[in-house]
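Data availability (excerpt). The following record was deposited with the supplementary files.
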Amino acid sequence: MSAASVSAALMERLGISLPIIQAPMAGVSTPAMAAAVSEVGGLGSVGVGATDAAGMRSMVAAIRERSNRPFNVNLFTHRPAVRDAAVEAAWIERLRPKFAAYGAEPPKALGEIYKSFAEDEEMMAALLEVRPGIVSFHFGVPAPARIRALHSAGITLLGSATSLSEARQLAAAGIDAIVAQGYEAGGHRGVFDPDAPDDRLGTLALTRLLAQSLPVPVIAAGGIMDGAGIAAVLKLGAAAAQLGTAFIASPESSADAGYRAALLSEAAQHTVITRAISGRPARSLSNRFTALGATIPPNEIPAYPVTYDAGKALNAAAKAAGEAGFGAQWAGQGAPLARALPAAELVATLAAELARA
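Predicted structure:
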């Protein structure tokens, strides 16, 4: 089957008319964004890894109030945190001076603030109840029984991979299409094991490798900001492109004012991978938190998402004092190309650029 045929088949299966997927950025994407993208022919997405089953139901209902088009619900399938009380206590003490600088105290103890889909029975039951057309996974492969149940409910499944090995695991498990997440991508690396060596494959190399090696469609993600970028990955064999950073500055985004200002400034020219904010490698705009993280060995940072408990508290304290530099300002290497357009207008612009390319 030709690359164009693979792309057309995937778009038909997803119920979209454009090979454009808005990335499911937990904490940034919103039902309004997802609905706006889906309404104009792309695939809108929401990330529910940072909420519970009730939160997911609410987000799905909010999308369906705005649109009857297909959309994607994304879940985190990370290994539950392996706790280390000594590391967590030391982390609190390491951050104590930063809290003090903003007149605040750090948390007395840290918690595992997000439950992995790998052990969230309520989320699984809720997905089967609300039946979104598409469900996607980040950080790993769900259990076989869950994949079978979701497929039986008529749900198309996507999974992110950062390597050929991860992609093969997803395809072998029955995932319908693979999101090839290049090292350029903003937000959390989708690596299955954050402590294993990372080959740091870029989007173009990874997309071509997976498109040539897998029996399922590939969706390219990472550093794609305009129609020319979409055209490039389609030529390499991708069936569609997933864009996240491109949508952060849209009015439908839940990014705060400091995040938006940084993204639309010269700060966008510098991004870095850090574990210090959440406990997992993630690409952020360079800021005060990433500078702190650059000095800390990975083994001194608590597990994900325990670290995030402290990170969110420090960001709240700093923001209350007028400092935005401790936020999780996730962004990919294409950040300088960001445009502050409404989501639907951005998709239309991307489609026009793609047609010209």
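Summary of structural features: The chain has two domains: 1-80+115-253+338-357, 81-113+265-336.
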